[in-house]
Each structure stands twice: as structure tokens, then as C-alpha cells.
From TrEMBL:
May play a role in resistance to osmotic downshock. It is a multi-pass membrane protein. Belongs to the MscS (TC 1.A.23) family. GO terms for cellular component: plasma membrane. Residues 78-118 form the Mechanosensitive ion channel transmembrane helices 2/3 domain. This is Mechanosensitive ion channel family protein. Keywords: Cell membrane, Membrane, Transmembrane, Transmembrane helix. The chain crosses the membrane at residues 20-41, 74-93, 99-121. The keyword Metal-binding does not apply. It is found in: Cell membrane. The keyword Cell membrane applies. GO terms for molecular function: mechanosensitive monoatomic ion channel activity.
């Protein structure tokens, strides 16, 4: 019974110790101060990031509007991780925990993880620069290596493409070495029309010009142009048409031109058969 009473007395003395409570109060106040200062620091850094990501206020860092949100969120997350890590170290220091062995152990573990995840680190770094330098954006049609398709997602680790037939390609960012972007500049649709050599060339060219002067297509940037005779064989004369159109719409415009020219030849009641051959090219306009 005496041991129990002594145990209770020790507890009471500890609870009623004014110096102990003052020490606890100081620790709690310092921890609250760390949390408040870290919150203010994050708010200030977030404002700085938002200012840097604003294209209207920054002339050095030029990003398309759909990139600003991605880059800004990435930088904010990085700032949050760093500030929170520092706060955790300061709080542990308040409890008299020796941080040197902890930091040394974390460094060794980080080094081991770094050696074991070199490809992951490469993917993340490459993904960051893809986002920052704006090589391509979601919705662009690109070709990298043997893959070609529409960009559906750009992440720090991988980029996802969707081909025109529906396949999904997930490509690690570290393996993206060169990229062809088909969605930046206007495209050039090139259409070759073969007319029978025995037909009147001027008549065929007049029919084609009539189609080009009245054709309407939302993807056309200007009026298509009949360049003239591209090639002559024993049986055919090839006429070449070019049309500047919106990025990556040359196939749609070419098909539209084929259909309208075929209808025009039918309306002209030409007894000969007119064959059309496709040639599509991409070019800057």
C-alpha cells in the first residue's frame, strides 16, 4: 500500500510542478509559432509562384494557358513538401531528439532509393522539363519514336497518347528523346487528280477551279490553289491542288476536295473516267 501511495504522490508532484508546466507551455507555444510561420511562408511562396506563372506579368517564362495550372501546382507541391519537412525537424528538435543520426539515416536511405530508381528519377526530371518548356500540350497530335497519337495526359512520370484507331500508349517520359508536333503550325493538304490524257485539259482545269472557288470548309485557312500540271504519262495528266488548312486537318480537307471535284466532274457530264490519287503533306503556313 505504501508503494501505491508513493506512486500517486509522485504523479501528483509531477502534475503540480509549475516548472514542468511552464516548460510544456513554452514547447507548445514554439510549436504553434513554427506552424504559423510555416503557413505564412507557404502563402507568400504560393503568391510568388502565381505571379511567376501569370503570362501577363512574366515575359521570361512563357507558357500556354493550359500549362500554367500544371506547372504552378507542381511548384506549390514542392514548396509544401520542403516547408513541412523543415517544420517536422524543428518540432522533433523541441523534444530533444538528436537529428544528426536521423538525417544521416535518411540520407543513406535516400541514396539507396536513388540508385535503385534511376529510371524513375529520369522520368520525373524529363517530365518536369516537358511541362516547363512546353514541348507539347494535351490535345496535340504528336509522334515520338514509333508512337503517334493525340496527347491525353502529361504526367511527371509518363505521357499517355491515344492513336486514331483507339489504342492507348503510355510512354515513360525518360524514353521521349525527340518529338514531332503536328498541332503547332497550319497543315498543307496536297491533292493530285489524274485526268485521262485524251480529255481537254483546259476543260478539266476549269471544272477544278470552279470547285476551289466555291468550296467551304471550316478547316480551310484560305482558298485552295490549283498549281497546274504535276506530271504527264501516256494515259494520264496529273493536276496538283494545295490547300492550307488548320493543324492536323489535311486528311479531312483532302477527302472533302476529292468528293466535291468528283461531283463537279459528274455534273459536267464528262464521259471519261477521272481518277484521283491522294498525296498529303504536312507543312508550315
Amino acid at each position: 500500500m505504501n508503494l501505491w501511495e508513493q506512486f500517486l504522490d509522485d504523479i501528483w508532484n509531477s502534475v503540480s510542478d509549475t516548472d514542468l508546466w511552464m516548460t510544456v507551455l513554452k514547447v507548445v507555444l514554439r510549436i504553434l509559432m513554427f506552424l504559423i510561420i510555416s503557413s505564412i511562408a507557404k502563402r507568400i511562396l504560393y503568391r510568388v509562384i502565381e505571379h511567376l506563372m501569370d503570362p501577363r506579368s512574366s515575359k521570361r517564362l512563357k507558357l500556354r494557358a493550359r500549362r500554367v495550372q500544371t506547372v504552378g501546382k507542381l511548384l506549390k507541391n514542392t514548396v509544401s513538401y520542403i516547408v513541412n519537412f523543415i517544420v517536422i525537424l524543428l518540432i522533433l528538435g523541441e523534444f530533444n531528439i538528436n537529428l544528426a543520426p536521423l538525417l544521416a539515416g535518411a540520407g543513406v536511405i535516400g541514396l539507396a532509393i536513388g540508385f535503385g530508381a534511376q529510371s524513375l528519377v529520369k522520368d520525373v526530371i524529363t517530365g518536369f522539363f516537358i511541362i516547363l518548356e512546353d514541348h507539347f500540350s494535351v490535345g496535340d497530335v504528336i509522334e515520338t519514336g514509333k508512337f503517334k497519337g493525340t496527347v491525353e495526359m502529361i504526367g511527371l512520370r509518363a505521357t499517355r497518347l491515344r492513336s486514331w484507331t483507339g489504342e492507348i500508349y503510355v510512354i515513360p517520359n525518360g524514353s521521349i528523346t525527340d518529338v514531332t508536333n503536328y498541332s503547332v503550325n497550319n497543315s498543307l493538304a496536297v491533292v493530285d487528280i489524274s485526268v485521262a490524257a485524251s480529255e481537254q485539259l483546259d476543260q478539266a482545269m476549269d471544272v477544278v477551279r470552279g470547285v476551289l472557288s466555291r468550296i467551304e470548309d471550316v478547316n480551310l485557312v484560305g482558298t485552295p490553289e490549283l498549281l497546274g500540271v504535276q506530271a504527264i504519262t501516256a494515259s494520264d495528266v496529273t493536276l496538283r491542288i494545295t490547300a492550307v488548312c488548320r493543324p492536323n486537318t489535311q486528311a479531312v480537307v483532302s477527302r472533302h476536295l476529292y468528293a466535291e471535284i468528283k461531283k463537279a466532274f459528274e455534273s459536267a457530264r464528262n464521259p471519261r473516267y477521272y481518277s484521283m490519287e491522294s498525296a498529303e503533306r504536312i507543312g508550315g503556313a
